[in-house]
Write a structure and sequence with these properties.
The complex is a heterodimer of chains A (506) and B (326).
Chain A: H1 2-14, H2 17-35, H3 41-48, H4 57-81, H5 91-102, H6 106-141, H7 144-160, H8 166-181, E1 183-184, E2 191-192, H9 207-227, H10 240-249, H11 254-269, H12 275-289, H13 301-317, H14 319-325, H15 331-342, H16 351-354, H17 356-387, H18 392-408, H19 414-432, H20 438-460, H21 467-470, H22 474-505
Antiparallel strand pairs in A: 1-2
Chain B: H1 2-23, E1 37-41, H2 48-62, E2 70-74, H3 81-89, E3 96-100, H4 103-110, E4 122-130, E5 133-137, H5 145-155, E6 160-164, H6 169-181, E7 186-190, H7 193-201, E8 207-208, H8 212-220, E9 224-229, E10 255-261, H9 267-282, H10 284-292, H11 302-322
Parallel strand pairs in B: 1-2, 1-3, 6-7, 6-8
Antiparallel strand pairs in B: 3-10, 4-10, 5-8, 5-9
Classes of the chains: A mainly alpha (506), B alpha/beta (326).
């Protein structure tokens, strides 16, 4: 098999001592960069880009890809341990990872996250190896109407099968959508909802500000209230035996893990989407597939496994449009792309032919990076769990400071920090009133993508909504989305029919 | 423990910075940056402006032209309005510079409410002028401009032209083609030139006016076909592609690739950046990039650049009013 031969050549390059060393160093560095709120893989790769001029191009991209990979693993750590998403891609991991940690099952969540990341990464690299060129055509086949249909599907998975209070879910989605509309209109360039010209609103509301506000600050307030300050967060002990038991527990999540891997990879391929929407969608689907959707958000391991598998798979996936089309699938790959240009490589349809050696060395290094990331991650788990044994009075100020740093870092604007506190209070109140918050986060991430693609599609069709249904790919996706949206209504009707029946029986 | 690790990480990064500044030579300037410089890009990832900005960043790093790194930040919203407003807010800040294009003129003209006066910005360097070509997908079977005109006329407003942003370069050229050839093409804005190129390669739209750097990959793969260039002379990279001038329509249009500083930036900082970008311009990598991506134009800076801007702005005011409702 031709592919296998290339891959073996690639491993030959990736396993050279220098490259292997860079992979290990990159994974370890990426792990910590990912774990730091506000310092995601984007910044990590940007800061370290200049270092790569010291080594040949293949080694350089291997190093940066290892950081990127490590950061995907690392993002989960602060999501689980502190309830602050370390990177945007790890927001969905907080939904269930944090509750698990609060129940003293942090080790379980961490092992699940690491394993899922490994599985997601491995499945996606295999897919990448075998199907890279044909899948590039799939990316090309996705125009604006298809993107919009996909966004609708994502919303529908959160509403239709969530098992939550449907009106409250809708309310949460709409709040997120309104927040996502703040800032400059994407198509016309006019400012919207900037409250009489408050300049901080011009750049829109960064969704990390919302996520850190709700999950960092909001959770902290909630914990203080519910524990009255006498919280023993974690009695989690860590031992080899416990870790093995955790691994055994993961058997039940194989389905969620596989689904997350494939979904994440597929969403990652589409330019403009990337790992964040991928992981959120995987969470939604995992919840809908689960036998026990009501336990999601309260500490279900499947809710950790699905988004973690998805964000790693998506990070591999988003390399595909970068390499084959020259279009970055995520902000981090945009920086990698810049690096490739200066190393004298032309990303695009010809890269696989002109720079075969480089491409296969990169692919081989992804296999290696994946393996080392999981090993390093698992080795550090006892250390991470130890953090949770810190007294509450020390842990809370640390979380608080990290929230402020994480809110400030993306835009370097104090406006966002105040906004984050605001969201924290609102998040706390929503939590008290039992509103699900994940849909709001989903909406603020997907809102702008959905809006742009819808308006582009309608421009293409001169305002006819038929465009979403008449195209071969968007049509079926839209129909599935609509059916999912209608499910709660059908359920209500079914319940109504059943209730009177029960009434007469009694 | 967490804090220990954070300290560990920040000390690694600190050491990297320290190492970078130790290896750097004396700069011969009074002002040198003491923290990373924000390098705002007025367009989305993957477009011509974005690729160029990242190339400039890497050249700066490779030749160690600045003791602190340039950190690229995409602010693509609202045809560059987001980036312009951001720079205005950062008035007097010596650590924010921006890669700009022609929306630098058109967006403030179209949106007076933003209160942007580009003459208040600090001119740093014009690095190149980018060129435009008319592209179609090879599946359309169109290879010449007159075939394009016939087909586009037939399809009326179902013929779709993708471009970046509203009332920017691409839409100006689209309206120009509509007027010249009596067409009614529909213009659909996307977030960056890379996305536009993909729309055409995937056959979701019928034509684009991409810059060479944006369409080159697909051109080499044979997916897209250039019909004619908006330049006075044929481009060396596309020797078989005629110019619109040859076809009897004299319309040349360029896109500036310039670097601009915040309004009220200190003269010392501006001098530092001008020096850095002069060195970038002279570097072998930049010259090579200009050649392979069919870029034109000499390096201009300071007052000459400001004059160029004022001239270009007047020209765009005319273009926008000629084209009616914008």
């Amino acid at each position: 098999m031709e592919v296998l031969g290339h891959l073996i050549d690639g491993f030959g390059i990736a396993m050279q001592p220098l490259n292997l060393g860079l992979i290990i160093f990159g994974c370890a560095l990426g792990l910590f960069i990912g774990a730091m709120p506000g310092l995601g893989s984007v910044n990590g790769v940007a800061i370290l880009l200049p270092m790569t001029f010291l080594v040949p191009p293949a080694s350089a991209i291997i190093f940066l890809a290892a950081i990127y990979y490590g950061a995907m693993y690392g993002g989960a750590i602060s999501s689980i341990m502190l309830g602050i998403p370390g990177a945007s891609t790890a927001v969905a991991t907080t939904f269930d990872g944090r509750p698990l940690a609060l129940q003293g099952l942090a080790d379980r969540a961490l092992v699940a996250a690491a394993t899922a990341s490994f599985v997601g990464g491995t499945i996606s690299v295999i897919l990448f190896t075998i199907f890279a060129p044909p899948l590039a055509n799939v990316a090309l086949a996705f125009g604006a109407p298809e993107e919009f249909a996909l966004m609708m599907l994502a919303f529908a998975t959160f509403v239709g099968l969530g098992g939550d209070d449907v009106p409250k879910t809708f309310f949460s989605i709409f709040i997120g959508l309104v927040l996502s509309a703040v800032g400059l209109d994407i198509v016309s360039g006019e400012p919207r909802l900037i409250f009489g010209g408050i300049s901080g609103f011009m750049h829109g509301i960064n969704f990390l500000v919302l996520a850190i506000g709700i999950y960092g600050i909001g959770e902290m307030l909630w914990t203080i209230e519910s524990s009255r300050g006498k919280l023993d967060v974690s009695q989690a002990n860590v031992s080899v035996r416990r870790i093995i038991r955790c691994l055994k527990d993961l058997k039940g999540t194989v389905k969620a893990m596989t689904m997350g891997s494939f979904l994440g990879y597929f969403v990652g391929i589409l330019p403009a989407a990337g790992a964040t929407p991928g992981s959120l969608m995987a969470y939604g689907v995992a919840k809908s597939m689960s036998k026990d959707p009501r336990s999601f958000g309260k500490g279900n391991v499947e809710g950790v496994v699905a988004p973690e598998a998805a964000n790693n798979a998506a990070s591999t996936g988003s390399m595909l449009p970068m390499l084959t089309l020259g279009i970055p699938g995520s902000p981090t790959t945009a920086i990698l792309l810049g690096g490739m240009v200066i190393w004298g490589l032309e990303p695009g349809p010809r890269l696989f032919v002109n720079n075969q050696e480089f491409v296969w060395a990169l692919i081989a290094s992804l296999y290696a990076a994946n393996l080392f990331s999981v090993l390093i991650n698992v080795a550090f788990i006892p250390l991470f769990v130890w953090v949770l044994r810190l007294p509450f009075t020390i842990l809370v100020p640390i979380i608080f400071i990290l929230c402020v740093v994480g809110g400030y870092a993306p835009t370097q604007d104090m406006h966002d920090v105040w906004l984050m506190f605001g969201f924290g209070v609102v998040g706390y109140l929503m939590r008290k009133l039992d509103y699900p918050m994940a849909p709001a986060v989903l909406a603020i991430v997907l809102g702008p993508l959905a809006e742009t693609s819808m308006r582009q599609s309608l421009l293409m069709s001169h305002g006819e909504f038929g465009i979403f249904f008449s195209r071969a790919i968007s049509g079926p996706i839209m129909i599935v989305a609509i059916v999912l949206f209608l499910l709660p209504v059908l359920k209500m009707v079914k319940d109504k029919i059943r209730k009177p029946a029960r009434g007469t029986a009694a | 423990m967490k804090t220990l690790k954070i300290m560990g990480l920040s000390s690694i990064i600190f050491m990297l910075f320290a190492a970078a500044s130790l290896t750097s030579v004396a700069y011969g300037e009074d002002w040198t940056p003491r923290k990373p410089i924000e390098f705002v890009i007025m367009a989305g990832p993957g477009g011509g402006a974005d690729k160029m900005a990242r190339l400039m960043q890497t050249i700066v790093e490779k030749h160690d032209l600045s003791p602190r790194p340039l950190i690229p930040v995409n602010k693509a919203g609202g045809s560059g309005a987001e980036a312009l407003v951001y720079l205005k807010e950062k008035t007097g800040d010596d650590y924010v510079i921006m890669v700009t294009l022609n929306s630098f003129y058109t967006t403030p003209i179209r949106q007076p409410a933003l209160g942007i006066d580009i003459t208040t910005f600090t001119p740093i360097a014009r690095m190149a002028e980018d060129t435009f070509l008319l592209w179609v997908n090879k599946d359309s079977g169109v290879t010449k401009v007159d075939e394009f005109v016939t087909k586009a006329k037939e399809m009326g407003n179902d013929w779709q032209m993708a471009g970046t942003g509203r009332a920017q370069e691409d839409e100006l050229l689209t309206r120009f083609l509509n007027q010249t050839y009596g067409l009614t093409m529909t213009y659909v804005p996307f977030k960056g030139g890379g996305d536009v190129a993909k729309q055409l390669a995937g056959n979701h739209v019928n034509s684009t006016v991409n810059n060479p750097s944006e369409a080159l990959g697909f051109y080499e793969a044979g997916t897209v076909v250039p019909l004619a260039s908006f330049t006075p002379e044929r481009l060396p990279l596309f020797p078989d592609t005629p110019t619109f001038k040859e076809l009897g329509v004299d319309h040349s249009y360029y896109m500036q690739r310039s670097v601009v500083g915040t309004p009220g930036m200190s003269p010392e900082a501006a001098a530092f950046y001008r020096d850095v970008f002069k060195k970038v311009y002279d570097s072998a990598e930049w010259q090579e990039y200009m050649k392979t991506k069919s870029l034109q134009g000499a390096f201009i800076t300071g007052d000459a650049l400001m004059e160029y801007w004022i001239r270009q702005r007047a020209q765009h005011e005319e273009l926008l009013s000629d084209l009616g409702d914008m």
